[in-house]
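Incident log, support desk, overnight shift.

02:14 A customer reports that sequence design results differ from what the structure should imply. Their input is reproduced verbatim below. On-call engineer (initials T.W.) acknowledged and began investigating.
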């Protein structure tokens, strides 16, 4: 199956489960994971794992090579340029690239044989929770406390009183960006929409602009700022 079709199918299952079937996001994500994992072909799985293992081997070999060369220069008391050393190590590594690829392919084949769909999903889920799960959970607790105590609403109202009705889009965008850090986007949206409606009833214009400003602020946070899940996961994967 084409990977792009699998991606589209996974998105349809997740979004359809949340928007149409009203399932909890966790259940929709799990169903999407099982569908994509179950329909992923053996060839695509081995290609993906080969690329992963090969990349890890190359990075490890380069880092070790650079570390050893720098240690040699320091031992001799000679000056060195880390960038030049890294380029030399990378060039020398090209000769061993075939060996690294064959090793990666063997690892990928072993992984495919010893891990079925269920095991791959549970292993990946557990690994992700171990890396970033606690941090996300703590941020969620803080966000719920802010919602329950009324602190989040006070932040939005304070921003509105600071800039006035004419600056309402800026207030909604700024407060959504700030509150999006500890509060999940759906909770933030449900919190602020009544304030958007109240502001619109006063000015009787720009309702769509207010909503777009609110969505833009929350989206920016959930796309760029940890400890929201997306940026935190990307940061963890990139090291």
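02:41 Re-run completed on a clean worker. Output:
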């Amino acid at each position: 199956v084409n990977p792009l079709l699998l991606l589209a199918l996974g998105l349809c299952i997740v979004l359809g489960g949340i928007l149409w079937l009203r399932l909890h996001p966790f259940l929709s994500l799990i169903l999407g994971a099982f569908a994509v994992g179950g329909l992923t072909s053996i060839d695509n799985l081995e290609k993906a794992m080969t690329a992963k293992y090969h990349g890890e081997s190359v990075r490890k070999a380069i880092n070790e090579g650079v570390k050893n060369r720098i240690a040699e220069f320091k031992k001799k008391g000679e000056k060195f340029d880390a960038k030049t050393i890294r380029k030399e190590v990378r060039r020398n590594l090209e000769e061993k690239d075939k060996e690294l690829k064959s090793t990666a392919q063997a690892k990928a084949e072993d992984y495919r044989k010893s891990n079925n769909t269920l095991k791959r999903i549970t292993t990946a889920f557990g690994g992700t929770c171990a890396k970033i799960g606690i941090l996300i959970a703590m941020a969620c607790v803080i966000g719920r406390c802010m919602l329950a105590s009324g602190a989040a609403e006070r932040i939005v109202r304070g921003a509105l009183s600071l800039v006035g009705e004419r600056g309402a889009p800026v207030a909604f965008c700024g407060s959504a960006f700030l509150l999006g850090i500890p509060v999940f986007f759906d909770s933030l949206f449900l919190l602020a929409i009544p304030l958007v409606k109240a502001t619109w009833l006063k000015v009787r214009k720009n309702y769509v602009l207010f909503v777009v400003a609110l969505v833009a602020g929350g989206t920016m946070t959930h796309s760029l700022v940890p400890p929201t899940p997306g940026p935190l996961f990307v940061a963890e994967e990139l090291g």
